[in-house]
Fold this protein.
Amino acid sequence: MASNNKRTFSRRDLIKGIVGAPIAGAVWWAGAKKTSIKSQSKESVLNTLNISASPPPPSGSMAGDPIRLGIIGFGIRGPQLCRALGFAQKSWLEEQAEAAKKDPQNTRLKSFLEQEDLNLQIVAVCDVFDVRAQDAVDSFSTDQVKVKAYKTYQKLLEDPDVDAVVIATPDHWHAPMAMAALEAGKHVYVEKPMTHNISETYKLKEIAENTDKVFAVGHQHRQTQSFLTAQDVVKKNILGHVSLIQANTNRNDDNGAWQYHIHEKASPDTIDWKQFIGNAPMTDFNLEHFFRWRKWWAYGSGLSGDLLSHDYDRINCVLNMGIPKSVSSSGGIYTHRDGRNVPDVFQTNMEFPDFSTGGSQETGKEKGMTLVYSATLGNSFGRQTVLMGHDASMELGNSLSIYVDRGSTRFKEEIQNGTMDPNVPVFTYDPTANGEVDGVSSATTQYFADKGLLWTYRDGKRVDSTHLHLREWLSCIRNGGTPSCDIKAGFEEAITSHMAGLSYKLGRRIDWDPEKYKLVPIKGVDFDEALLANKEKVS
């Protein structure tokens, strides 16, 4: 992995070797050590690498009758998804208009207003907090379409005017609602993690695979240009045999630690507590549990389901390595001793002993890989995701940089003759190279931006990645096709995340049997019971 000092030096060199790209942002070259040969070597190196930074063909037309959506869950992620669909709360519009006046760099409102019209209607909403549901009704209703507020998701699913649903609830409701929606004949977009336990992961998979409805999971980075470019890098075997991957989470603010705002109008009179609890253990009404549910295993999945799931799928969409053979996790509650029972420091090793990206080495040296994920909610030092191969390493986030390895077999000649320098990247895709930077203020927002989870470029314009991901889902509904994060990818994400959570809670390695396509049993252990136990560890 390149040091911070190396990256600072590299950017200066990069500016000297700009190539340009067919899309906004830029592809850069800075490989040659000797200035005199740079102009000759630049084209040679880029031809050798032959990396495509072009976006995929656009998803299909949005023409036709409007798709009628029901929104289930309108807390934090629900309004974000609605904005990506083209529907913003009145309060948000007012706030962003005022923010844009104060800070010209704040382009959120401008970007929202320039979004493509996806030709849909929000016709129904369900949230167990009355205030939130009413906010959606007041914000999205028009003279033509009056948004209906439902007390239960079952009633919303009975509505014949609802064609499809977006599910943005606490984790423990994802699978039950998704399964019910598919069985009710609705198309489904569900937030990650796809499920909350092992058994429902299989049940949802079976239902989704036996329906003609379109099912998608909310891993929007699959639309981000850097990840699409990384797929081409791997396809062309530029990295060689990838033996180690490092992915990380560093957050150090209240929002990043799931200390979400508690609404002043929240009370037993405005919240349907029984419905919120659902299949979780019943407990007395508790505003901490309701608004900050990610801090408890009973409703959320901690770092393993909330953030590891993103990082795992970011790698899986590039390598398609599937479910690891084994997972070992460790960590603890070391900073936020506030009653939570999910860890705030977490490390997971995923082993893929039979996986290979191919390479340039002799037979027998191109097999096996470890993915290490480490996280802390007590420090915000930015660490890159790095794929480390025999021939090159790739730093991957919203931008992408490739460093050849000084021990490379494939690039040995180029390193020796000075065409490529291991100290600076031979290729970088940087979407901010043209100077367009959003005026973000939240540390957590910047964290997601750096990971490629907020925006990308299409046709020279900066676009919300979630907007593109939802558009893809809607296109599949209209025009046919399969979403990039379908039930197969969702299953792999869910099982892998649950393996990590189980390993932490049980204090032991969790193994996967690829032949039987299930976890290797542990005598005396009920995996779902262990995973859902509302305490830090069960061992």
